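re: ur question from the group chat, yeah i did fold both. here u go
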Amino acid sequence: MSTLQISLAILGGVLLALIVAYNAWTARRNAPKRAQPAEDEPPRDPGHNLTERHEPALDLSQGGQRLEPVGPQTMPPAQAQEHADHAQPAARTEPALDGSAAAAEADSMGEAAHATEPAFAVPQAPAVPFERRPSLDSLIDAIAPIQPEHVIPGEGALQVQPTTRRAGSKPFRIEGLNQASRQWEPLQAGSRYTAFQAGVQLANRVGALNEIEFSEFVAKVQVFSDAVNASVDLPDMLQEVARARELDQFASEHDAQLTFMLRARQAAWSPGYVMQNAARLGFVPLSMPGRMALPSAAGGQPLLVLTYDAQAAMADDLDQSAIRELLLSLDVPQVHRSEQPFARLREAADGLCGAMDGVLCDQNGQALPVSVVEPIAADLEHLYDQLDSRELSAGSMLARRLFS
């Protein structure tokens, strides 16, 4: 081969290697980001058996030979006696501590324990006032009192109550006045009831109670009343339907559900990568694939909900599933204002954007500048005040039922 041919072959080989390296770099760059192993987990040898027992260390003073355990049973009689004599003083007991000494020791142990605690303090969730209200309320329910002729046991009431808990699209329920506690409660076995009340919700996010749903409610109440031999005082249909429409109008004007979109700037995310970064902010997985929630201090409805592609979450190889966007949602009427839900939403969005190299957008994928996001907080405070004035405070039991 001539020098020119050799040079061209070498140049072709170098060019081919550069092309292969560039393709590998591009594929690595565009591959979905994967979850990282825990930092505090030491690297594990793949061939290491967890059930393997470690041998005792060798004593270099004995020439590297393994020392077998030595005891009186393996010693000659003379050595065994000498061994017992030497071991006798070692088996001494600690002196008992009196009260002051014990307190001092406890203080020292407490200081040692505090010394091992992390330097930062985990913030406590804000306290949410707990309200004791019956499940039925005339503010959002049409209620029909039911008066039986005698005390009804809970077992009998449960047998004759309607099998469905809805009238159309509205929740329906029957409560009993407990003879012992004199409190309204859901029907349960073992209790005795002196009175009942049936109620149907006037409105929810589906709409207002209509005439057909009210008629279904009346039919259910009448069947139950006849079964327990009771008289019932049914509310006026036209009046309750009018109340339902007015309540639905108010709820429609004061309902708010905020949703932010987080989009990947460059490389996509794998489901494991999303879950790992969300878990660091307190999110926990839900039963539905592709959904996580930030728990609320009051329980019940979560404070925030994170959703991403459910198909990617159910893929066989989660490391190869690509996610380029996810949604952060806040159901405003469902969360108490004392938990500062919008601030928590901003904090979670900023934390995820910073950790995952994302950008904050609206539901259409348009980037949201700070000048657009900041005024939302003032609007929410005004919304909270209006809900409070109607005794439908955000996060309360009535608000959760109405905005559901």
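okk and heres the other one u asked abt
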Amino acid sequence: MRRAIYAAVAATALLGTAAQANVILLAKGSIDGSSAGIGKDLSGLTGTLENGVAANILGGMGSALAYAGGTTFLATPDRGPNAVSYNSAVDDTTSYISRFQTLDLQLVQNAAGSPLPFSLSTLLYKTTLLSSPTALTYGTGAGLGLGSGAPANNTANTYYFTGRSDNFGDGNSGNPDNARFDPEGIRVSNDGNSVFVSDEYGPYVRQFDRRTGQLIKTFTLPANLDVANLSPKGDTEISGNTSGRVANKGMEGLAITPDGKTLVGIMQAPLIQDAADPATGKLLRIVTVDIATGATHEYGYNLTTGSGVSEIVALNDHTFLVDERDGKGLGDGSTAKVKQIFKIDIAGAADITNLTGAAAAAAAVAKPASPFLDVVATLGAAGVTGANVPVKIEGMAVGQDVTLNGTLYHTLFIANDNDFVPGVAGTNQFFVYGFTDADVPGFAAQQVAAIPEPKIWAMLIAGFGLIGAALRRRARTILPA
């Protein structure tokens, strides 16, 4: 099996402005399989989905990326493979079971003179399916040319969330019993026992047990995010509502403050009611959720040149990086232009929950004119053309610190969503950047407690055939050749 561990092959790139001078490209890597095989995850699922795609397909994992301490990361695919046309009545969505992947992403320092300071070794070693211990509402498929949307894997105490768009019941899009789920953001609790996942269908923010994937709670979000009239077809749902999130552009990003007390979600696009007003045509809403009390607040974020936002990650309890992007690049057959990371500070910002129009726009969070990081520019300087920069740069996580030439760098891991079509959008890729305290005064990393993991062995394989076995911090299974 071809290894999913790639040696870095591009030159280190420094950003052009003074504010960005210490942000450097440290490594790049990719993953295309697991011990189950190329293109397969470790869910253990068998059979195929409604569109003929394998139920254990590996892909899309860069929709969200979370740091879990050490060299452990969690990656979340979105609602599943819907690139294969089979039933437009449900937007070609399937009963793909929602899940997260547990990865080992380790930076290995290269010898002096190497193209990049580090290589990134990658390993998928666990897949966790997301479920509810109580019954969820699934579509019957009646009138849609389909059978029930309930997964055959359901049991009396396990009801799986899936990506099929007709899996909803009565009420608005915030009904917590709806089975349809489109994971787009993931973060880990400080005690390491829970994961928080945001989605686009509700939008929802749900808390799951990290070990079992079973639902713990669903947070109540502001009512102005919900849509009243639901449909399996996104376009119909959009046209049938005058307020709430735009279909497929819900809570795309999720952060957690380093103290582990507050979740911070961001909408991908303006709400329907905001988009209808020229004053707020580029205004996105940031939603904070107090984990203990459920109390929420909203803050405004104005787009610069991107068409939407895909992720938010915390640098301390009030400073965040926001991933703003276009829909161009590898996967679209075009040239990427906008994949920019902006640094914002919500300290002292006004709550816009009850504001609309010019008042909401005027209260938006202050934003610098220049990005903290221009991904297209840095990858271009490293030899990656715009046509090969992934369209969907969506996952971001602050990872482990490294030292390079005597300087301590904090790391920012960035991942892409390849929509489960590697032949079109490339593999699941990771780009690792380094920044210093000078770039982010007051930086505070989240400290996630370690949880017990299976002890297995692994072999480190460098991308160009240099093979060496090493005892890693955690032992792992040796993948077959």
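fwiw on the second one: Residues 18-469 form one domain. The mean pLDDT is 90. idk if thats what u expected
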